[in-house]
Amino acid sequence: MLKYLAQSPYLNFFSGIILFLTSGYETWKSFGEEAIGAHHGILIFSLVHIAKVVPEITQGLKEIEEADEMI
Fold it and tell me: Where along the chain do its domains lie?
């Protein structure tokens, strides 16, 4: 069960979105400062995380649409 949760594309997508929003807020708040913080790395990590699961989610949605057409 834990393996299923860890590999869930929807959970990974929503955690990526949450990371993106929170680190994006921190990055926006510190805009103009010349220091690089951890929130910059987390922002990049969240974008990679989201980009990794988008193809899986779109493939799943496409398969659901095809199944609906067959019925």
Answer: 11-70
